[in-house]
Amino acid sequence: MSPRNAEHTPVPSRPESASESVLDPAWEDALRAGQAEDGEQGSVDAELAIVHLFRHARAVAPLAPLALDRIWRAEIAPQITPVPWWRRRWLWGVVPVAATAALLVVVLRDPSADLSSADAARSPTLIAAASPAPSSASALERQFAQLEGDARRELGGNVERGRGVLRSQLLAMASKGDTQ
Amino acid sequence: MPDERLVVAQAAAGDRRAFEQVYRAYASTLFSYVLVPMLGDRDDAHDCLRETFVSAHKHLGTFVWQDSGIYPWLKTLAKNKARDLLRASGRRQRLRGAFEEHLGTAGSSEPQNPAEEELQRGALRVRIDAVLAELNPRYAQVLRLRLLEDRSREECATVLEVKVGTLDVLLFRACKSFKAACDKQGLAVGAEL
Question: A157 in contact with B at a CB cutoff of 8 Å?
Fold first, then answer.
C-alpha cells in the first residue's frame, strides 16, 4: 500500500451505522474510492458482488412489513381483483352497438310481414291464434260504439268552448283597438 | 403456512384472501433469498416480486400440488421473472453486484422452503470462512470486521491500525483477493446467470 493511500479519506460523507444493508450504495462508493486510491480503473461489479455476498451472509436484505403490505395493496391486489361487469371496457363498445342494432331491427322490420301468406297457409293454428275470436270481436265493437258517442260529444263540447274563448278574446282585442 | 394445500386450493379457486395468505407467507423470502441475490438491486427485486405474484395468480390453476408445497413453484416463477428483466434491460449492465451464483455453490441442493434458504445461508457462512482462511490475514480481517461484524470504518481503522481512508483500499484489495481465492477453489464467482 502506498503512503498516499494512508493519507486519503475518500468516503466519509455517508453516515456509518448498522443499517448499511446488503444493497446499500455506500458499498459501491467505498469500493470505487479504494479502487481509485489503488490507481485502478474500470468496473467494480465483481468486488461489489463479493461485498453483497458477505452482507447477505451476515443478514439478508429484508422486505419491511410496511413495504410488503404496500406492494400487496397498491400493486398486486388491484391487478388480480376482477373488474365488475359494468366497468369492463368492452361493455362500453358492445352495448351501444347492440342497442343500435336492436333499434334498427325494430324500425326497419315490417310488422305486416310477420305472417306472410305462405306462412299463413302452412300454419292455420297461427292464424287462429293471431285473430280474435268472434265473440270477443263483437264485444269490442259494442264497447267502441258506446265510447264513440261519448267521445264525439266531449270533443264537440271542447270545440265549442274553444270557439267561445277565442271569440271573447277577439272581441276584447277589437274593443281595445277602438279605444286607442 | 398451516394447511397450505387447502389455502392454495382456495386461492386457485379464486379466493383472494387465500392468495393473500400465500403472498404474505412467501414474498419476503423470495425477495431476500432469490430476487436480491439474482438482481443485486432492490428496486428491480421489488418489481419482480410484484410480477411474480401477479403471474402466480394468473397461472395458479396450472399448479399441481407436490409435497414440497408451493414455494418451489413460486421460486421458479420469481427466477424466470428476474431472468426476463435481465434480458429486457441488458444482462451485463444489470448484473452489477448480483451474487446468486455464489449462493448456488454454497449448498448441495436447491432450497425447497424458507427454512432451507436460511440453512443454505448458514452453509454460505461456513464456505466464506473456509475461503477467508486462505487469504492474507489482513485482508481476511478487514472483510470480517467491516462486512460480517458490521464494524464502523473508524473502528475497523483503529483495529487494523490504519487511517480511515486506507480502509477503502484494504477493503477493495481484500474483495479482489477473495474473488481470486474463490476462483482458485472453483467457485463460480462473478459468473453470469
Answer: no
Q: How far is A41 from chain B (nearest CA, A)?
A: 12
Would you write out chain A's pLDDT as a tens digit for each of its 180 residues? 333 333 343 444 444 344 457 778 888 888 888 889 888 888 888 889 899 999 998 888 889 999 999 999 999 999 888 777 777 777 778 888 888 888 888 887 755 555 555 555 555 555 555 555 557 788 888 888 878 888 888 888 899 999 999 998 998 888 877 655
**Spatial separation of the C-alpha atoms in residues A76 and B2, rounded to whole Å:** 23
How close are the terminal C-alpha atoms of chain A, in Å?
A: 123
Closest in A17, A30, A63 to B168, CB measured: A30
Report phi then psi at B177, rounded to 5.
Answer: -65, -40
Q: A94 to chain B, minimum CA–CA distance in Å?
A: 26
| CA pair distance B107, B100, nearest whole angstrom | 12
One-character DSSP codes across A138-175: HHHHHHHHHHHHHHHHHHHHHHHHHHHHHHHHHHHHHH
Tell me the CA end-to-end span of chain B in Å, nearest whole number. Answer: 31
CA A68 to chain centre: 30
Rounded Cα distance between B42 and A55, Å, is 14
Distance CA A16, CA A33 (A): 16
Q: In angstroms, rounded to a whole number, what is the distance separating the alpha carbons of residues A168 and B120?
A: 109
Secondary element (H or E) of residue B124: helix B114-132
pTM attached to this predicted model: 0.66
Q: Which residues of B touch A18 (CB under 8 A)?
A: 150
